Amino acid sequence: MSDESGYPVLLIGLDGPSKAEVESLCEGALYTVIHDATEFEKAFESWQDGMFNAVFAGSEAGLPANELAQVLQNQCPETKKFFVATDPKVWEPRLLLKNGFNQCLQLPLDRSLLKEACLTYVITGEKKKRVYKGVRVLDLGEGDRLDFETYAFLPLNRKYIKLSAKGEGLTEKKLEKLAENQVGQVFVDQKDMAQFYQYTASKLRSLGAGAVSSTERQEKLRESVRGLFQDIFDSSVKGDFDHGKEMISQVEGIISSYVTKGATSQWYKKLLSSIGDTGDSYSHASNVSTVAALFAIGIGHPRPEDIAMAGLFHDLGLTELPVELQSIPEWEVKPELRELFYSHPERSMNRVKMKRIIVPPEVEKAILQHHEKWSGKGGPKGLPAGRISDDAMILSFADQFDYLTRLEEGKRHLSPLEAYEEIKRNGSINPEILAKIRRLLEKEASEGSHGSRAEKHS
Ligand SMILES: [Fe+2]
Ligand SMILES: [Fe+2]
Questions:
Q1: What domains lie within the chain, and their CATH numbers?
Q2: pLDDT, mean of residues 409-414
């Protein structure tokens, strides 16, 4: 991120004279230097717009220049990217420009151009550059008043243009124009994300209010929730860790705004901090909470906020158990440790009470029963099918789902549908609830490209 102490600049595989030239022109810059392909592989996934004022790349890192261009273009489409080299034989400008570089400069011939680039983008560069977030605007309402500005990205000019100002909305004409130009995504300034979450959540709440039947309303809800799931998984299934994290945090923002009904008390945030979660990390509790609430909304559960709350607290008691039991799914627990493991739902509830948090009886039940199974083979009580609450079943599904689809640096374990099949196979969940959840993930299946296990992205 750019800060007060210098101008962040990324240098990749520049040859000696080029590097010296750039450094002499960019006084006061803070360099991140990539020397070879290994360093590049390690670092590129963390790059994004807003991190560097400019990128200067050359041919010395042993990376094919066109691929380099494409990766950079992917990671930071908005950042100015220059290819600089002293030997013109190493590159083909036309192709490089097409693949994402803004300019190809040959030294010493293009020294003045390089100087201009450094002056424009590094030194006087837009230091306080805005960061835009691509968002999904649910049923982006024609004429809806939006408390945030919206932008469209024009890939050809690599520019964001303002679509609507704060307090305005998108007119029919603008929406038509977007459709005409096949612009599928709208962008929001990062600082306006809270307003965006509130808008989307209230949209979600009022969705289908005017619908003729409850079936119609449910279908609309399902459609939206499906979209949110796709947002989370389309990116992260490709192993794009940062984007996946970004998407889940966006959905979390929407859901927390949904369950708090836009309340200013921010109880959801308070709850998060009460369990020691800062809300910006990729954690099991907040993930399960978000995903469980999303499932609940999507299948028409009347109290998604209860499910969200149960999700936050369900594993609090794990902290009292030996470390090796704290972050593994139930199926990895050794038989001799099972009983001890099954003591955590009750410990979770005790912790909730110790923190003087009052939860509805349904939430308590969901927490206590989140390891019970429809097959009767769960714990701690081994309750039979009919005695496990729906809330507990939804929570249990989301809990397992998070372990199975967990996103780790560079890979995702299973696709949402593979995870669904796995959970169905183990007989833990009420078949009725399973069928409803299946319909939420359907579209993901029909797109068909998420089939393979643990896709590596290296
Ligand atoms: Fe648990
Ligand atoms: Fe859990």
A1: 7-123 (3.40.50.2300), 132-190 (no CATH), 207-447 (1.10.3210)
A2: 64
